[in-house]
Amino acid sequence: MINAAVFASGEGTNAENLFKFFANDPRIKIKLVVTNKDTAGIIARAEKYKKNIQIISKDSLENYADQFIEFLKLEKIDLIILAGFLLKIPEQFIKAFPNRIINIHPALLPKYGGKGMYGSRVHKAVLDNKETESGITIHLVNEEYDKGEIILQAKCPVLTEDTIETLAQKIQKLEHEHFPKAIEKFL
After folding, report:
1. What distance in Å separates the CA atoms of residue 76 and residue 55, rounded to the nearest whole number?
2. Cα 131 from chain centre
3. What are the CA-CA distances from residue 35 to residues 9, 24, 158 (Å)?
């Protein structure tokens, strides 16, 4: 069985979707939720599913990465799933979990990736550039923002009447449908 840790900074809808999808799967256990915000919605969602929660500050993640990696290894974590985690993953994590850190991005990379490109910022850029399609990219994490090997991409049309909110809804639907399927490739 694979033990996974989900890292999230926001509301946690993708994380909750994964909790439900893998609830009775004997191949994987989502053992731990890590967040960098003590007010994040992911905390209530994780509590609802009785997940162990760790709150780690940006400073701790950067300056005490080796200690946190040791904690993850003591917890027997095999896979790290980034579900809206907004901090950059330190290199030590990438070396400690090679090809075992997965991220979901709300655009078709390589477009609209990089530092600061998340959530509504991505959707606004897609709309501002009058793209005719958008989507999601699920990829491995490496040392550069949004540059890791692509595991899966899924697309949706962008209509002239779309707003940031309607595009976000389309993207979230793709995320909920495809993120669990991409993770299954690692089981």
Report:
1. 18
2. 24
3. 5, 24, 31
Cα distance between residue 43 and residue 134, in whole Å: 29
Q: For 18-72, how does the pLDDT look when each residue is reduced to its tens digit (9 = 90+)? A: 999 999 999 999 999 999 999 999 999 999 999 999 999 999 999 999 999 999 9
Q: Could you give the CA distance from residue 106 to residue 94 in angstroms, rounded to a whole number?
A: 22
pTM of the entire structure? 0.95
Which DSSP helix (H) or strand (E) runs through 53?
Answer: strand 52-55
Is-contact 88 95, C-beta < 8 A? no
Catalytic residues: 105
Share of the chain above pLDDT 90, in %: 97
The per-residue pLDDT of the chain, averaged, comes to: 96
| Residues 103, 86: Cα–Cα separation, whole Å | 11
Query: Is 131 in the same domain as 165?
Result: yes
3-state secondary structure of 101: strand
Structural domain of 20: 1-98
Count of domains observed in the chain: 2
